[in-house]
Design brief:
Pfam family, one: SecE
Number of helices: 2
Family: Belongs to the SecE/SEC61-gamma family.
InterPro entries: SecE_bac, SecE_sf, Translocase_SecE/Sec61-g
Number of strands: 0
Protein name: Protein translocase subunit SecE
Structural class: mainly alpha
Subcellular location: Cell membrane; Membrane
Shape: elongated
Helix content: over 70%
């Protein structure tokens, strides 16, 4: 049990004193970039989905006649 307590104590000390945390402005910029990248990726996937759907519908309709 002492090893587990030492592990958690060392982990807390490491996180508190040795980790360099980003500033609020850096964090907001990074979050904005992630949001923008996610929206662009979603838009690209959405366009691909619509285009493949239309292409497959046209393909299937060519056999229905």
């Amino acid at each position: 049990m002492a090893k587990l307590n030492n592990y958690f104590r060392d982990t807390i000390e490491e996180m508190r004193y040795n980790v360099t945390w980003p500033s609020t402005t850096e964090l907001q910029k990074s979050a904005g970039l992630v949001l923008l990248g996610s929206l662009v990726f979603a838009a690209v996937v959405g366009v691909m989905d619509v285009s493949f759907n239309k292409a497959l519908d046209a393909f299937y309709q060519s056999f229905a006649r």
